[in-house]
Design brief:
This protein is mainly alpha-helical. It is built from seven helices and no strands. The relative contact order is 0.10.
């Protein structure tokens, strides 16, 4: 399954209608369950690695990725409106899928929360019981 997702993601680099990032993240998830070697290959990739690491560690989609994916989605669904006759069922379903995807993308944080950084967490010290202090 990881290879299928990776292949679909790579095809998505060439075809703007097919999303790349979700397939790459899904491939990384599949490889994390099946092949540590290929998971590390994706996490270490110069282009996809930071996106995968942010997603795995914090559930974050960087702002730049949000803008690029939103722009590409809107361009792809607007193309038929301007250059083809309208087919209400197909066009409405495309618009519905795009709206759901956009809502999901923009509902994710753009950067890690401050309290998710381990170095910023206050150190927990065991408290003495009242019996110990008496």
């Amino acid at each position: 399954m990881g290879w299928v997702c990776l292949l679909l993601g790579l095809i998505g680099v060439l075809l703007p209608l097919l999303p790349t990032t979700p397939f790459i993240i899904l491939a990384a998830y599949c490889f994390s369950r099946s092949s540590r070697r290929f998971h590390q290959m994706l996490v270490g990739h110069r282009l996809f690695g930071p996106i995968i690491r942010d997603w795995e560690a914090h559930g974050v989609i960087p702002l730049k990725v949000k803008w690029i994916s939103s722009t590409m989605m809107l361009l792809m669904i607007s193309y038929p409106v301007f250059f083809k006759p309208l087919h209400w069922g197909i066009d409405a379903s495309m618009l519905g899928v795009a709206v759901i995807a956009l809502v999901y993308i923009w509902s994710r944080p753009s950067r890690p929360r401050q309290d998710s950084n381990p170095s910023s967490k206050p150190e927990l010290r065991p408290q003495a019981d009242s019996a110990d202090s008496a």
